[in-house]
Design a protein that fits this description.
Two copies of one chain form a homodimer. Chain A is α/β, with parallel strands linked by helices and about 500 residues long. In chain A, about 45% of the residues lie in helices and about 10% in strands. Chains A, B: Its cofactor is pyridoxal 5'-phosphate. Chains A, B: Belongs to the group II decarboxylase family.
């Protein structure tokens, strides 16, 4: 093998046996994959939603080393079908109701294709002006759709940026807040900084604090209660802050959530911002889940109070407001300007260089995707689409209400229903287990959910809220229609029947 | 408008006027975009490489708000052609020689399509087993192609992960190293930690240190010299470390680079690892640029010494080695396990949950892309492809050598040539400017580069190395053939002729 490889060094010239971007070959193979995916969507309903493979399944089907010689695309697609698809959990299945569904769309897909095809790396304006300018424009579009205060928009001195993920968005914001504060109180106080959230706040915030070097002991997951619908109360926040200040700590950052991951609970923005303001705390609004539905006027009230927040995140997008000299705080914290990136446009300060608004240097032309989605569907259809999810969730909630063995555990705010088999039903059948009624109920609901998911017919996930194990039914997959919701309910009932008569 | 919107709330049902993922519509629109992109590649050579638009050009062509009603894809593609393409800097042009080119390929594109199409969010094994397992498999494939020591592979107790970007990769590694050290010396010492690189190290490392809460005063960009080909010497590293320890600081992390961004210089891994080992410093190898070419046996020697490093990054991929209980240090630093993510597979510890190997929770099915690339081209063609880039750069270097007005400023290691008009040539024509000869030369070369880029015929970027302004000619765009290199040289000469006779 050694001599073969040594020989290669001499044998290849500019003859161009490899044309990795030949337009006609691109066309041919591209069409093949489009058809492959169209057929996948046509059949996705038939696959078990949650993958049924065992850990390590793929190692048995795939060689241990990369091939030396090229392989044809047809063969690779065959392997995708036979080896990869069985190992997928089908997030695009209409019977997918787990976590929060990732609602794919044709327009989104096409936007990704264009972005991948142009393959520009838009770290600064110069490296591809359209990438930066379109992003600023669609961020303002989105801000207007959400009726954000003017100071959040570029046109009002603020501005938005598309981040790769939630976690990056939070981390950037927190670093900006941290550095602003450390400049005031001195770097040696970094161990005194405190970050606030509730026990329902997304784990990303704790991870971001951890990465940013905040003392792990200074992350406050303030307890919520059923009485307050698992929202963080202003009173609880104030008490925690006061006690921290008494201990010589420095309150830094509050994350308020509109639509928590466990139960889609809503933190009351207005009162929380009032408290935060008093203590000079940066308020970041995490509207990752429920932000989108706020483009419908009837849901916009959930964002009331945002005018006093410092930053807002919504899916992969984020805005900064002007008041606290933002986004300047962000740029200050994240800016780098090595020689090889210097250019006239940046020096005139007429342009945004998005590399300074994020962790990473390089970035995809992300706004193409959002631009295509907004134009292909228009505000009208996007609202209809979101409302149809809420309606389907309402329908599911109604079905639960008609079966007295079940209960909805927390009030439904959006398109996610948290429910379980009620304790009473179980008492009769599982009374022999020596455990508290609550433990028994939790155990039984967990068993029911696992049986449902193992069937492959539908896929839901769970959470534990205030000690109660709940099944989460999250509507949002793009192919889901009301008939799938009705089918899902039948699947739940059938498995409950089986378990309850065991 | 208010009443129109209020009415909507009542008018839509489950009638499904919106089918955002209809398979046949997906097929139709998908084919349209494939043809659009194939035509783009066919014509990309004709566009000015660097975009010629002025800041703010797009605002004048695009409405200020999102459309209320849907728009057809045909119209949107028209706008992409008329409004977006002029604002692109064409990274896929065969005449693109700027920064480091992003070499797109058909296989890579198809992999992205499949990943986007399946749209799974593979944060843990359960959420899509194939995504995790394929990633582990291809990371081992790649590790073997690079002949990494066994401890870097999953099969040897280490393991690899695909990160979104360079900066994320470095940040993760640094946080793991930081927390390991703080556990030993106490959190209150965070301001004592020191991070080492050279003055040629990528700015991402300084930014990562900044985000991770390392005191900005404790980032050492150790000076390099032309005498050492701009590589970091073990002696300089040792002296800096010693002086830091004398000042009561704690050496933490060294980034050694194989192929720096400015001039593709190589830090000598072996001697640097020896010094680092002595002081218990984490060694991270940044082989982002030159790592790939090390799959060719004749370049592998640049990685010699990697057996004593702790982590290695190479493009968007990263390996951790076993010796220092890695990747456990990483998982320890980045792990979160909220209730809604709990699942049987994770609890058995039989599986990798990649969310704990990175900053973000969610992640794309990234390995599909790499898998398709490795299989479509095979090791054989990938080597040929990389060698053809080096050959073309050599050719360019040869052309420079034949024109005595020019000089190659630093020795070429890979496929990037750093060159300039020599001081002597300029003396005669720009002598009237009151400045040192070096300043005059730099000024003149900057002027030449700007004139070349403004022509739109080719695009190069610059750097300043050891005070010398250089033009960087980086071969790597997938469509580049030797004729483009010859053409580029003609463009350089023509512009030089013009300026030198002005």
């Amino acid at each position: 093998m050694g001599s073969l490889q040594d020989q290669e060094i001499f044998e290849n010239g500019f003859s161009g046996t490899i044309k990795p971007l030949d337009p006609e070959e691109f066309r041919r193979q591209g069409h093949l994959v489009i058809d492959f995916l169209a057929d996948y969507y046509k059949n996705v309903e038939k696959y078990p939603v949650r993958s049924q493979v065992e850990p390590g399944y793929l190692k048995k089907r795939v060689p241990g080393s990369a091939p030396y010689d090229p392989e044809p695309i047809e063969e690779i697609l065959c392997d995708v079908k036979n080896d990869i698809i069985p190992g997928l959990t089908h997030w695009q299945s209409p019977n997918y109701f787990a976590y929060f569904p990732s609602s794919g769309s044709i327009a989104g897909f096409l936007g990704e294709m264009l972005s991948t095809g142009f393959n520009v790396v838009g770290f600064n304006w110069m490296s591809s002006p359209a990438a930066t300018e379109l992003e600023s424009i669609v961020m303002d579009w989105l801000g207007k759709m959400l009726k954000l205060p003017k100071e959040f928009l570029f046109s009002g001195g603020g501005g938005g940026v598309m981040q790769g993920t939630t976690c990056e968005a939070i981390l950037c914001t927190m670093v900006a807040a941290r550095d602003q504060m450390l400049k005031k109180i001195g770097r040696d106080k970094i161990n005194k900084l405190v970050v606030y959230g509730s026990d329902q706040t997304h784990s990303a915030i704790q991870k971001a604090a951890q990465i940013a070097g905040i003392n792990p002991e200074n992350f406050r997951a303030i307890a919520t209660t059923k009485a307050n619908a698992f929202g963080l109360t202003a009173q609880a926040l104030r008490e925690t802050i006061k006690s921290d200040i008494e201990s010589g700590l420095v309150p830094l950052f509050l994350c308020a959530t509109i639509g928590t991951t466990s139960s889609t609970a809503v933190d009351p923005l207005g009162p929380l911002c009032d408290v935060a303001k008093e203590y000079g705390i940066w308020v970041h609004v995490d509207a990752a889940y429920a932000g989108s539905v706020c483009i419908c006027p009837e849901y916009r009230h959930f964002l009331n109070g945002v005018e006093n927040a410092d930053s807002l995140r919504f899916n992969a997008h984020k805005w900064f407001r002007r008041r606290r000299l933002l986004p300047q705080a962000l740029v200050k914290a994240l800016s780098t300007y090595p020689e090889y990136l210097r250019n006239k446009a940046s020096e005139t300060k007429q342009v945004v260089d998005y590399k300074d608004w994020q962790i990473t240097l390089s970035r995809r032309f992300r706004s193409l995707k959002l631009w295509l989605v907004l134009r292909s569907y228009g505000v009208a259809n996007l609202r209809k689409f979101l409302r149809s999810h809420v309606k389907m969730a309402k329908n599911f909630e109604g079905l639960i209400g008609m079966d007295k063995r079940f209960e909805v555990v927390v009030p439904r705010n959006f398109a996610t229903v948290c429910f379980r088999i009620s304790p009473i039903e179980i008492g009769g059948n599982y009374g022999q287990i020596v455990a508290s009624e609550e433990e028994t109920t939790n155990y039984f609901n967990a068993k029911l959910l696992e049986a449902i998911n193992e069937s492959g017919k539908i896929y839901m996930t769970h959470s534990v809220i205030g000690g109660v194990y709940v099944m989460r039914f999250a509507v949002g997959a793009s192919l889901t229609e009301n008939r799938h919701v009705n089918f899902a309910w039948k699947v739940v009932q059938e498995h409950a029947n089986q378990l309850l008569t065991m």
